[in-house]
Amino acid sequence: MGAGDRRFESCRPDPVHRRDAESSGTLPVPGAGYGARVISLDATASEPPYEQIRRQVADQVERGELQPGDRLPTVRALADELGLAANTVARAYRELEHSGVIETRGRAGSFVTGDLVERRAKEAAADYLTRTRALGLSGPEALALVRRLVDHPVRP
Q1: How far apart are alpha carbons 139 and 14 in whole angstroms?
Q2: What are phi and psi of 53, to 5 degrees?
């Protein structure tokens, strides 16, 4: 493992995850009883650390390495493991939650959400809101625009 590689564990003990991890080249932590996932931070990358975490967790969910219901490490635990400030990991988790990849259940922790279709729809909606806000539209104005398009679709 390289100097920038860091591990975190899915908190869901499941031999299926161990098999998935081995087939993807990500080996479980010996004796941990959980499938390990790898987060690699590249200090030389132009991409900030929170975005590297966000992207890698989202990719692992997309590939099925993290399954719906899998519990992610706490913000503090992952920050300690990666040698980052807790706010950096918290921002990655907020971005993941905003796009529907994970949900936070208070003190119970953060978990991978279940529906890929819903997750992609939330990501598209979040992107839409970001773009319409950049154009100067408010949330209600952007929503009204979508409602008008549902009632009166624009033909290509």
Answers
A1: 41
A2: -65, -50
